[in-house]
Design goal:
CATH superfamily of the largest domain: Periplasmic binding protein-like II
Strand content: 25-35%
Largest sheet: 6 strands, mixed
Number of domains: 2
Number of helices: 7
Order of helices and strands: EHEHEEHEEEHHEHEEEHEE
Oligomer: single chain
Distance between the termini: 21 Å
CATH topology of the largest domain: D-Maltodextrin-Binding Protein, domain 2
Helix content: 25-40%
Radius of gyration: 17 Å
Length: about 200
């Protein structure tokens, strides 16, 4: 089974795919629209996408796309815990890269440490950028798994993100702190994720 998610390997949606489908092939796409289109075209069997966050509310783009693509249906719900970590190289941190929602959830943590927020398209992508660029003072807000995941490569022309071999760079990222919204060690944020498939006519055999 091939399961689509939005983001790069190590993203929270990727974690949810692993929790829901232990033997599936997870396929990441750069945007929500590409994820939905892959499902509609039959490139994947099911898609796992966030629809709501306990602190940030509804994921509006996913909700809008559901209206635009009426041939899809919800088949299951899954509440997935989000445990933000500050990932980077040894040394002081001056700026943190992450998805805007993750940065907003960790605003108090970052503000108290005078760490500047820098928006990035994806939490796991932010961890990859920090690992590859090795810029002093730069870290990422992401799942701990993103600090040890393989570096993704993009298939030419397809928009699909696939995993390549693990590199020492990403494996070297260290967790520099637990960056919860309220500064507590155990973040209480969570995603409500839904898996979708293509709705078939009731008269089809």
């Amino acid at each position: 089974m091939r399961v689509a998610f939005q983001g790069e390997p190590g993203a929270y949606s990727d974690e949810a795919v692993s929790a829901l489908f232990t033997d599936a092939e997870a396929v990441g796409y750069p945007t929500f629209r590409l994820t939905f289109e892959a499902l509609s075209m039959g490139a994947v069997d099911v898609a796992v996408l966030p629809v709501e966050n306990s602190s940030a509310g509804v994921v509006q783009e996913v909700s809008d796309l559901l209206w635009d693509l009426p041939d899809l249906r919800v088949v299951r719900e899954h509440v997935h815990p989000v445990r933000h970590c500050l990932l980077g190289w040894p040394g002081p941190v001056e700026r943190a890269l992450s998805h805007p929602q993750a940065l907003a959830q960790c605003d108090a943590y970052l503000h108290s440490r005078q760490i500047r927020s820098v928006a990035f398209h994806d939490t796991a992508g932010a961890a990859r950028a920090v690992a590859e660029q090795r810029q002093p003072g730069t870290a990422a807000i992401a799942a701990i798994r993103a600090g040890a995941i393989s570096v993704p490569t993009r298939s030419a022309g397809s928009g699909v993100i696939a995993a390549s071999q693990v590199t020492p760079a990403l494996a070297g990222l260290v967790a520099k702190g637990s960056a919860s919204q309220d500064g507590e060690p155990a973040p209480k944020n969570g995603f409500l994720l839904k898996d979708f498939d293509v709705a078939h006519d009731a008269h089809e055999s």
